[in-house]
Amino acid sequence: VVINPAKQNEHELLRKKFQYPQFVAGRAFYKNENTTDSKFNYNYITNSISFLTPKGDTLDLIQGEDFSKITIGTDTFCYYKKQFIQQV
Question: Measured between alpha carbons, how far is 41 from 31 in angstroms, rounded to an integer?
């Protein structure tokens, strides 16, 4: 991802940072079989899954090894070799 702050606006930066144009409803499946629903997005810059808190803050899932998978809309992501990858 190439970012030139002098030539690109915030909307363009967000378009390149995230896979989806907005956060999408999804579910986090923990290895202990619990689940959590939230709005998620895949962050290209950090190779992580970002989610919205109930207050609207954006945070990254940092303990990827705790999850068996994350669904974002119809897409599924798994944690493999210390990063989230999309199942195709």
Answer: 20
Structure tokens belonging to residue 29: 């499946």
DSSP-derived 3-state class of residue 74 = coil
Q: Render pLDDT for 9-59 as a digit per residue (tens, 0 to 9).
A: 666 666 678 999 899 999 999 999 999 999 999 998 888 999 999 999 999
**Residue 38 exposed, middle or buried by CB count within 10 Å (0-12, 13-18, 19+):** buried
Whole-angstrom Cα distance, residue 83 to residue 63? 10
Among 73, 76, 81, 24, smallest CA distance to 52 is for: 24
**Residue at token pair 């002098």:** 6
pTM of the model: 0.80
Please name the residue ranges forming H helices in the chain. Answer: 10-17
